[in-house]
Each structure stands twice: as C-alpha cells, then as structure tokens.
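Message: Study each token:
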Amino acid sequence: MRRLMFLLAMALPVAAMAQDPRRDMFPSDGACYLRFYRADHLARHPDQRVKQFAIGPDAGQTTVASLALRLQVQTRDSSDFYTGLAYCHGTGAGLSCQVEGDGGGFTLQPRDDGAVQLALTSAGLVLEGASGFLDLSGTKGDDRIFRLPPVPADSCP
C-alpha cells in the first residue's frame, strides 16, 4: 500500500505539468477563436446582444507571468467593434482573466471539440468602441457564456 501511495504521489506532479491551459489553448501568437452568430440563432435568442466575439493573444503584452488576450465584440445593432485587453493566468485546466481598466473578467475553459468556453464573471465585461462602451452583464441576459471555435489567424482581427 505504501508503494502504491508513493507511485501516486510521484505521478501527480507529472500530470499537473502536462496540463498547461495557456499553451494548450494558445500555442502561438496566431491562435484565435471566433464565433459569428447567424441571424437565425439571434432570432431564437432575442436577449443576446453579441453578434460576433473574437479572442486571441496580444504578443506585445504577453509576459512570463501572464497571457495578454485581445477581445473584439460586435453587437447585433451596430457595425462598431468593441475591444479590450485581458490579462490571464492558469487556474487548473483553464484560465482566469481580468480586463484592464476595471473592465470585468471571465474564465476560459478548453472544450473537447477544440473550442473554448468563455464565461463572464459576476463583474461582467466592459469593452470600448468608437461610439462608447459596451457593458455585458455577468449575472443576467444571454451574453454570459460563449462557445468560441478555433479559426485561422487571418480570420481574427
């Protein structure tokens, strides 16, 4: 029994090291996730304001301690894009991210289908655009959880 416990204890650090959500979800500066919601989806979800959501690394801002991600969101009622920069760190199998300038936060979790799931924290998300700010609630509405599939780097802003 002692031998089994020793082997299990030795295996845990190896399993933890094999799990690197930063590298797994964003293996390069070109890694990108984007979801464009079609008109039929938006018609079925009238309380959803987001029409497009993109997220990818901002190479100029990334440090050893954190991963900087740029966000770009477009709403159904505007052609404007709202942007922000978030700093993320690993938390288990995912990332915990805070948007600069008190812009709220979100978590990112990898999905089995290669996509990521972005879930707003209760603080929500505030992004800036040419015509003002976009404020997405983290506690109500249909803009709290997004499944974002991977796309080629040239598909993202």
